[in-house]
Amino acid sequence: MSGGAELGLAGRVALVTGGTRGLGLAIARKLCGAGCHVYVNYAHSDSDAERAVAELAGLKGTVTALKFDVGDPEAPGRLLRLARARRRHLDILVHNAASYHPMSALRPDIGELWDDVRVAVSPLVQAASGLAELLTRGTGRVVAVSSSGARSVVPGYVSQGIGKAALESLVRYLAVELAPRGVTVNAVSTGKVDKGPDTRDDRTARLLAERTPGGRLTVPEDVANAVALLCTDEAAWIQGQVLTVDGGLGLRA
């Protein structure tokens, strides 16, 4: 799945939250390369959005940046209404946006903890009824980006771990309720992702790569490939699942 044109997604309309950098940008790049009309949502950095749009401009699809803070309870509804006004429907929603405040379970900052949980869960909860009407029957796909921290303990990750665990549970509930409408809901989960030398601790990265059966860290493109796979027609009977993309790291005892 190194390319995108062979996925059968050309012409479909996709919205990627947190889509202007990191994992979100890799997902947007994959879908845009497959010929999708991609909306990349972002909350803060206009410069990141401008760079993302410029980077994706030469691909097969189209890209538009939309500035909304999906942690705002009103934002998901506004995003969906805007998508309806511009394209009249939506085929793919990828919920990648996240908020992270490091903290201990014994000394949490309750306000920041709930901020992180809200960003993980609220966009899909708030958008659920609108998605039922907006997503195209038969090709409607919802994919949430989760983390191994939903099931395993990562130091300092308590707020994200709680949020991602709740997100995976929500995926299952939405899958059951949207399935009769021909819409699938799934999640992609990953562990440590190598986003480049500016964002990694080399020693930790080396140790994790050595523990990974595949012999390297996961990169954003690995996650993007899995998301795209779940968006294809061939994935129509995959429902309510969490697909782990970590090169086998999670299999180690």
TrEMBL record:
Residues of the Ketoreductase domain: 12-191
Molecular functions (GO terms): oxidoreductase activity
Pfam family, any one: adh_short_C2
Record bears the keyword ATP-binding: no
InterPro entries attached to this UniProt entry: KR_dom, NAD(P)-bd_dom_sf, SDR_fam
UniProt-listed SUPFAM superfamilies: NAD(P)-binding Rossmann-fold domains
Keywords assigned: Oxidoreductase
Keyword rRNA-binding included in the entry's annotation: no
UniProt record similarity statement: Belongs to the short-chain dehydrogenases/reductases (SDR) family.
The protein, known as: Enoyl-[acyl-carrier-protein] reductase [NADH]
Taxonomic source organism: Saccharothrix australiensis
Source organism phylogeny: Bacteria, Bacillati, Actinomycetota, Actinomycetes, Pseudonocardiales
